[in-house]
Amino acid sequence: MALKKQYLKNKPGCKVTFTLPKEAAKNASEVYVVGDFNEWNTSTMRMKKLKNGSFTFTTTLERGKEYRFRYLLDGTTWENDWHADKYVSNEFGGENSVVVV
Length: 101
Prior knowledge:
This protein is mainly β. The protein has one helix at 22-25, and strands at 4-7, 13-20, 31-35, 48-49, 55-62, 66-73, 77-79, 86-89, 95-100. The protein starts with a strand and ends with a strand.
């Protein structure tokens, strides 16, 4: 499942739906999407768990920008989006997912 983007008519934003599939969620009970768009706050964007075991969250982001992000599973494990637009190295020796809007 790729990142879903819905560009808004007459508005400068883009609705982005982040989806973490069940396989990537690793039986997590709670998942947050964390990134540039929320100052890497680990408790503001809690994803909704779906019946099929995947998690989803939709937010509106400003167009013409790239945002780094990751998913935080149960407050301990970081996971990238398997279908991000691209990946960039981070200061912790890993990679961040990037969504381009």
